[in-house]
Structures are given as C-alpha cells and as structure tokens.
Amino acid sequence: MTEQAITAFNVDLACDMVCAKCEKFFDCESPSKRDDIFIGRMAQAQETMKGIKHKIIVVGGKGGVGKTLLTANLATALAMLGKKVAILDQVFDGPCIPRMMGVEGKGIQLVGEKLEPIEALLGIMVVSMGLILAEDDVVTWFGDMKRNATEEFLTSVNYGNRDYLIVDVPAGTSADTTNVLRYIPELDGALIVTIPSEVSQAVAHKAALVCAKAGIDNYGVVENLSGFTCPKCHKQVDIMQKGGGKRLAKDLNVPFLGHIPMDKRIAECSDQGTPFVYKYPDWEPSQMLLNVAKAIDEKLSKKDFIEKLEGDRR
Amino acid sequence: MPLPGYLPRPFRVYVLPEWLGNSGGMGIAAWAPLEVGGGKSDNPGMSKIGGKSKEKKMSEVEKLKKGIKELQLDMSCSFHCEACEKFFKCKSPEKLKIFERRRMSRVLKVMSKIKYKVAICAGKGGVGKSLFTTNFSTVLASRGNRVAILDQDLDGPCIPRMLGLTKEKMFMGDYGIVPVKGLYGMKVVSLGFVTTEKDIVNWFQEKRRNATEEFLSHVDYGELDFLTIDLPPGTSSDAVNLMEYIPDLDGMVVVTNPTRISQIVARRATVMAVESGVNMLGIIENMSGFVCPECGEEVDIMEKGGGKVLAEELEVPYLGHIPLDPRTSESSDIGIPYVVKYPDSPASRQTVAITDRILENIEKFRQERAR
Questions:
Q1: What is the rounded CA–CA span in Å between residue B95 and residue B123?
Q2: How many whole angstroms separate alpha carbon A10 and alpha carbon A13?
Q3: How far apart (Å, rounded) are the C-alpha atoms in residues B139 and B359?
Q4: Pairing relation of β-strands A114-116 and A109-111?
Q5: What pTM was estimated for this model as a whole?
Q6: Shortest distance, CA B364 to any CA of chain A (angstroms)
Q7: Tens-digit pLDDT profile for chain B (371 aa)?
Q8: d(CA A232, nearest CA chain B) in Å
Q9: Cα distance between residue A266 and residue A260, in whole Å
Q10: Please, are residues A146 and A175 in contact by the beta-carbon 8 Å criterion?
Q11: CATH architecture for the domain at A41-189+269-309
C-alpha cells in the first residue's frame, strides 16, 4: 500500500437548503441563501439591530488571550467618550463579562416581550448568559441550541438606541463566531487580540481569516500579556517573548494598535469588576485603548457621513 | 413593581420550518418564565453539586421580579442519542444501545487496547491545557510508558507546535490513520497535521462529532499504556462528545488560573465532569506566582491560591500549582517540552509531582471501582 499524506478531512454533509445553520454560509455562492436573510429570524435580528449605529466584534481564536478584557475595556473607553454602548457576551459556556463589569449576580428581566439588559457603569448595557445562569449551572449546548440562544440575544433584547454594540465571542473559529457574523447584519469591524507567544499567532490568524471571509473590516491587532515589569526591581521581563502581535499585524496587513502589559492591576480590576480604563485612565494601556476608541469613532463617523452624502445624492 | 395589564405569556413557541424537515425532531424555543430561587445567598443548596434547590411557590408577578433564571431552548427527543446534548442527563435505557452500533463498537474496540485514558479540560481558554498535556505526556513517556496524545482542539490545534512537529503529516496505513511519532516515541494525533496554517476549520456540531469519531475509531493507536486527551475550551460539544464516546474514561484533570474570574469557568467545567459521572482526578493551578529572573524575587502577577479554594469548595482533589516562567513559553515556541529542556526548573519539578499525584488518584479510583 502506498503511503499518502492525509491533507484533508472529509466529514462533509450534503446541502439541506437550511442556510441559517450552514457552516459554509460564507463560502456558498448559491443565490437562494440571500432569501434566508430577509425572512424569518434573521430579518427579525435586523429589525432589532436597527437602533444600534455601529457594531464591533472582538475575536482572538485562541482562548484566554484577553478577548473579554478587551471587550469590557473598549466598551468602557467608548462610554468614557460619551457614547451609548452595549456589550453582548456570546460566550455561553463560561461567561466572564458580568464579573468584569461588576454586575455579577443580577438577573436579566423580561419586560413585556423583550429582555431588559442590565446597566453597568457609565450606562453600559450588558447582555450575557452569565446574568441568566446560576453559579453551578453548566451549559452543554450543541450547534442548534447555541444558534437559538444567539438568535434570542439578537432578536428579543431591548437594546434601544445605542451608538455602539461590542460583541465578545468565545475561543474557536466555529459555530459561535460564525453565528454572530451571520446574524448581525452590517458588522462594522473586528478587533483581533493575541498574545506574544508564537503558538497563539497561528490561531489568531485563522480567526482574522474568518472575519475577512465574512467581509468585515479589520481594525487592527492588540497584543495582550505583553511584557512584565517586576515591581521589586523595575526591570522589564518578557514572559512570553515579544513582537508576535506586530508580526501578525504585518502578515494581515492591518495596523498594530498597541500593547497591554501583564500587570497585577489588570487581574485586580477584572476581579473587582471595574475595567482598568476607568480605574487608571492615565495609565499607558488605558491611553492606548482610549486612542483606539477615538480612532474607531472617527473612522465610523466619517463612514456615516459618506453614507449620508451618498443617500442624499440618490 | 406592578405590571399593568400584563400577563406573562408562559411560553414563546417557535416552530421553524427547517426543524420540521430535519431529523424528525420538532423544535420549541421558549423562555421558561422563571425558575424560582436565586443565587447562592438565598439558596445555600445550590452551591453544592447535586444539591437540589428548594422550590418556593410564588405568584407569577413575583416570579417576574426575580428575573429570568433559565434560557430554555429545548428540543424534543429524536432518538439520535450520539448527537444529543442531554446524553448524561437522560435516563432512557434506549441510549445505551448506541454502543452496539457499528462505529461505537469500533471505538470501544480501539479504546479497549489502551490501559489508561485521561482527559485534560479547563472550561476557560489559554490557561495551559495543551501545555500541561504535552508535558504530562512527556513525563509519562520518559518513564518508558507507551503514550499517545489526542488533540481534540479542532479550531486551533497547538500540540504539533509544542512538540516541534509542525511539518509532519499523518498517513493512511493498513490499520487506519498512522499517528505522528514525537519525542520518546509518543504518538500524536491532531487536526493540525491535516490542515495547514492558513486553513480555517469552521465546523458545527455534526462535523465535529464525526471528526471525534474518526480520531477515536480509525486511528491505529495499537497497544498503549496512556492516552492523554487535550480538550478545547468550553463545556459544550467537544467535551461532551468525548465523554460520550469513551465511557471508561479514567478521569479528567481541570487546569485553571489563579484569578477569581477564571474560577467561574473552571467551576462549570468541574461540575460538568462530576454531573456526567466522570472521575475528577483533580485541579491544577497554572501560572501561579512568578520568580523575576532579574532579581530572583517572587511576584504574584495574578492572585494565588484560587485553584486550591475551588478544589476545596467542590470537594475534589487539588494536584498542585505550576509557576509562570518565561522559559515555559520559550520552550513551547521552540517545540521542546520544558520538562525535557529545563528539567531542573520549578515548573518541571511541579509537573513531575503533579503527574505522580494523578497516577495515584487514577489507582484510587480503579480500586474503588473494583470494590
């Protein structure tokens, strides 16, 4: 028997014409998938999302790189600029946003037909599975249930009028991420988070490719857990090498936005439920995030302006 | 808060046309109006595993005030047990029949040749599951055991890089897929050998299950002493699939960070394992403490001791802690496990000690089962 390297894993299933739950949604070129967007739940999601001006997604591919941290802090930074912000936590298995925003233990309420989000500091609205589950409840949902939950969070929540919706997605490049990309119409952009070590670059790259496939702008790469300054001798130590984020940004041809160092303050702030941008606004990483928030806001208001102009012309 | 003119609609029923045609199951997505009983404070029974919460009787309006406690998106039974997420909660005798089916019986046959099977899980991502799996397996293999690593992380497989095998490929042999051989003759199975760096794996449930099946039934593991399985983050499909397919799993190790925030997630992973009837071999605290290489003083970047507290709370064994070390990350990037490259570092010594404790616990559980 000749030895042949295995280069593909064929676990494919045939098309069943159910576009709402197909994993090849973005690869597919069939015209019938367009119909799916305008009927049913996807249309409902579109209706609910109308009140939200801009939507940004934070991806990382790998777990534990700081997606949730960046989501919480970017939202806070935008809120500090005076914007009305909402956070949607798409992590169903282990939601951390409620703890980071200091709203842990509060329960989401049903008002009328819609769910009422919980308000955190600076008027940020939080929607998360963590506000529904008890501490010991375990979510072991497979594809369909997760998709339903995504649908529920997109269609039945009373977001009201918001300037920004920041979406936090779980690790991986499969179901959860794709569901969000598919159900949220007109996502404005994606932020990529990574850590300096080589191992995580490959995974972050894949996540960036998923976003590119869905046709979403990539705003840039943030390198988290980057360098550590010893509080005793004040020398900098690179616990996980350095420069991985820069290399990734270069590979993807997107801007490199900055570093967030490894610091005790960050872990403390997250545990206490106050984002570090709010608690230490003058600190270097906070300034970086505030600048990123400003840049994004500028870019998007320009986009709004151009769209408005084009609309007037028509 | 009075709710004028409002009567809660108990269930919101959606029957999507797509469910009617598929798999025979009809779907009902509903907001279960509210399960009563709050968090820990007013309901101490909730904090214990298996402890049942007392149900208070409340009027509908009072229930509304309490907030939603459950998001119910349930679907009715389609008798498709291997694809069911409630496999471990289900009490129907039907479900055991899946082991008689062709693919399942093949998995059982392959797995019966392996003496010990250990899964490494965490719930949260980036806490060091792959790192620990690699080093734990290396320690076992260096003692002369026949070891295989199964990388269940399909989206972002890291084990090939950590063992320096990125350029290798798996081959089709006479008895199935031939795993790649690494250090000390360790057999490694990972999707990273199949896809290239630029390939995106974007698989939903069915495909993931198929891939798991493939890795368990069609790989030529041969006779083995240990199979260590690295699970991806999360407590959903991949973890559940694996526990379903290997009914005689020796146990699960949970890795966590010292921060309180990651305990929330690690707790869920532990509860999941215990509720599914898998032995908990213990909790490891990774990234615990850091010795500055410049001045030699110990600094806590994240708080310390979270793993121990969690272990005590859930009454499962605590296995030890592994300190944060720049050499750990460096050696993973080069592709040589730190227990081989820096055998005298504190991290390596702790890993060896933890390995011994895990082996002890496995034996303990085996003896209990024999009784």
A1: 26
A2: 9
A3: 12
A4: antiparallel
A5: 0.79
A6: 27
A7: 333 333 333 333 333 334 433 333 333 333 333 333 333 333 333 333 333 343 444 455 555 555 555 555 555 666 677 777 777 777 777 777 777 777 778 888 889 999 999 999 988 888 889 999 999 999 999 999 999 999 998 888 889 999 999 888 888 888 888 999 998 999 999 998 988 877 788 888 778 888 888 899 889 999 999 999 999 888 888 888 888 888 889 999 999 988 888 888 899 889 888 888 899 999 999 988 887 877 777 777 777 788 999 999 999 999 999 988 888 888 988 899 999 999 999 899 999 999 999 999 999 999 998 88
A8: 7
A9: 9
A10: yes
A11: 3-Layer(aba) Sandwich (3.40)
- Residue A107 burial (CB count, 10 A): 18
Q: Which residues of chain B form beta strands (DSSP E)?
A: 114-121, 147-151, 171-173, 176-178, 180-181, 187-190, 224-230, 251-256, 280-291, 298-299, 318-324
Q: Contact, A278 vs B314, CB < 8 A?
A: no
A262, β-bridge pairs: A228
Judged by CB atoms closer than 8 Å, whether chains meet at B297 and A233 is answered as yes
From chain A residues 190-209, the ones with a CB under 8 A of any chain B CB are: 195, 197-200, 202-203, 205-206, 209
Specify the residue for token string 């690179």. Answer: A238
DSSP for residue B22: S
Domains of chain B plus CATH, in order, are: 1-78 (no CATH), 102-370 (3.40.50.300)
Q: Which amino acid is at A94?
A: G
Q: A307 to chain B, minimum CA–CA distance in Å?
A: 33
Q: Check B173 against A3: CB less than 8 A apart.
A: yes
Q: Transcribe B220-269 into DSSP letters.
A: ---SEEEEEEEPPSSSSHHHHHHHHH-TT--EEEEEE-SSHHHHHHHHHH
Q: Which of A61, A109, A239 sits opposite B68 (nearest CB)?
A: A109
Query: Nearest Cα to B126, choosing from B282, B265, B326?
Result: B265
Smallest CA-to-CA distance from B349 within B314, B325, B315 is with: B325
